[in-house]
Amino acid sequence: MRSICVFCGSSTGKDPIYRAAAVELGTLLAERGIHLVYGGGSIGLMGVLADAVLDSGGTVTGVIPESLEVREVGHPSVTEMHVVSDMHARKALMLKLSDGLIAMPGGYGTFEELLEVLTWRQLGLHKKSIGLLNVGGYFNVLLQFFDHAVGEGFVKEKNLALLYTSGTVHGVLNQMFEKESSA
């Protein structure tokens, strides 16, 4: 994997563990020579992540819709910035520019991004690894809901395996790289 797209919040959350995980992920991506593709913001976990990659000598591509460029305060120091027409174009370009995807804690936008790329994977529109960085158990309730959806017959159990989940940066990256090397 040469590039990974990371979906994460435009805020840092209340617990400092989220910020620490973003720094750890950004630093590790740069150390491994993995290019970051992300939402283009300079605020929240997005900004912390991009800064960590850049501070560690890595490269970063931001993809931000015109309508959010000012609102999310587009990052002025990224290696490359794409300004696109809307959120759908943003997700499509982020997917195109990346070899794998990771979701970190975030809000509705992060949930939507994660669920869309999972749906695209389920439908066979891409074959990229998708990781869920479950920092501090942030996504536990969502993962329980996925199990509930399987139990109710709305999600096939085999599709739960489309998502690699770990509470640690190393854990999620290792799962994604193991999958790629066995493919």
Structural features, described:
The chain starts with a strand and ends with a helix. The chain has a 7-stranded parallel sheet with strand order 4-3-2-1-5-6-7, with helices on both faces. It is globular. It has one domain (3-137, 163-175): Rossmann fold. It has 7 helices and 7 strands. It is an alpha/beta fold and 183 residues long. The model has no long low-confidence stretch (mean pLDDT 95).
Report strand order across the widest sheet.
Answer: 4-3-2-1-5-6-7
Based on Cα principal axes, name the global outline. globular
Which H/E pattern describes the elements? EHEHEHEHEHEHEH
What is the CATH architecture annotation? 3-Layer(aba) Sandwich
Strand percentage, roughly? Answer: 15-25%
Distance linking N and C termini: 12 Å
Helix content: 40-55%
Q: Return the CATH topology.
A: Rossmann fold
- Outline the biggest β-sheet: 7 strands, parallel
Q: Indicate how many domains the architecture comprises.
A: 1
SS element count, helices: 7
What is the C-alpha radius of gyration, as a whole number of Å?
15 Å
What is the tally of beta strands?
7
Average pLDDT, rounded to a whole number, is: 95
Summarize the structure.
This protein has seven helices and seven strands; from the N terminus they run βαβαβαβαβαβαβα. The chain is α/β, with parallel strands linked by helices.
Give a topology summary:
Elements: E1 3-7, H1 16-31, E2 35-38, H2 44-55, E3 60-65, H3 66-69, E4 80-84, H4 87-97, E5 100-103, H5 108-122, E6 129-133, H6 140-151, E7 163-166, H7 169-182
Parallel strand pairs: 1-2, 1-5, 2-3, 3-4, 5-6, 6-7
